[in-house]
Amino acid sequence: MARRSCCCCISIKLRPTPSAPAVVLAMAAAALLLLLAGAGVCDAAPLKAHFYRHSCPAAEAVVRDIVLARVAADPAALPAKLLRLFFHDCFVRGCDASVLLDSTEGNAAEKDAAPNASLGGYDVIDTAKAVLEAVCPGVVSCADVVALAARDAVSAQFGRDLWDVQLGRRDGVVSRAAEARADLPSPASNFTALEANFGAKGLDVKDLVILSGAHTIGVAHCNTFAARLSSGTGPNAAAGADPTLNAAYAAQLRARCGPAPAAANNNATAVAMDPGSPARFDAHYYVNLKLGRGLFTSDAALLTDPRAAGMIHRLTKQGYFLEEFRNAVRKMGRVGVLTGHHGEIRRNCRAVNY
């Protein structure tokens, strides 16, 4: 079963000759492309803004209204949950809503993989999809709802859209926990692993650094960073902390999570990923990073590569960060999308159509 769209990137180059002028060859190439398209070779369509303008004009407003109402009731947590849901969806099989599928007999789905155990926001997607099915049945994909919901939730505090969402994704029909375990970046990853992981998705070092800035909102459970509280051999060795971790910050984390052995098993206590600005989508993450207050090993890893480290200072400027995040999240939203006749439009985001 195809996992990816077959984007129409056929290039036909014919060399003019005295007996075949350029204009004749151009007409022949165009006719060949039309023939291929008719045969189904090029049945994928690109994502585009306002994709549902004619098929479901209310689609974007429906999602926005539902998301904004839910964010108003949970402004501190929900934006981070929906943004993370989008990220985790795109990094496994592409942005195809496979993360929303429930496990079935004989198949453990992505959402039941350990890295996805703390994901949230599913109920918001379910609500939006139910309304869309009532208004425009079988038209709007779950994958597009996820993409819109992430944008709308993060943008709520600004009163304007932080980025535009190109639409037209279709929903995947496969979801495997093993793929989530293999494809999702680990908070314990070093820079080499992160670069390889992002590179496999067509994302570069700049995308890695900027998308890591999403850690400016949300929380993490103690067990996801406990190793940093007990791996030190440098200035923090007496306290047992990773030497790249700010000593005062390490002490705060230990007070919150308990000593390292206990912290490793503590998946109940949560701490803000961006201390000092936990609910505001801003550039403060990079300020903390420069001060040794990046929570995860993967955060601190950005300072170990000269290319990545060289980007950090400029990203402490709010305007620049928002501009660059807009570009990077739009690029991520195109990873592995299904379009055209690939995939399906699920009626229920938790199950494939039958």
UniProtKB/TrEMBL annotation:
Keywords: Calcium, Disulfide bond, Glycoprotein, Heme, Hydrogen peroxide, Iron, Metal-binding, Oxidoreductase, Peroxidase, Pyrrolidone carboxylic acid, Secreted, Signal
Sites marked Transition state stabilizer: R84
Species: Urochloa decumbens
Chemical reaction(s) catalysed: 2 a phenolic donor + H2O2 = 2 a phenolic radical donor + 2 H2O
Binding sites annotated in the UniProt record for Ca(2+) 1: D89, V92, G94, D96, S98, E110
The protein's name: Peroxidase
GO biological process: hydrogen peroxide catabolic process; response to oxidative stress
Secretion signal span: 1-44
Described purpose of this protein according to its UniProt entry: Removal of H(2)O(2), oxidation of toxic reductants, biosynthesis and degradation of lignin, suberization, auxin catabolism, response to environmental stresses such as wounding, pathogen attack and oxidative stress.
SUPFAM superfamilies membership: Heme-dependent peroxidases
Subcellular location: Secreted
Domain Plant heme peroxidase family profile: from-to ranges: 46-353
Residues that hold heme b according to the record: H215
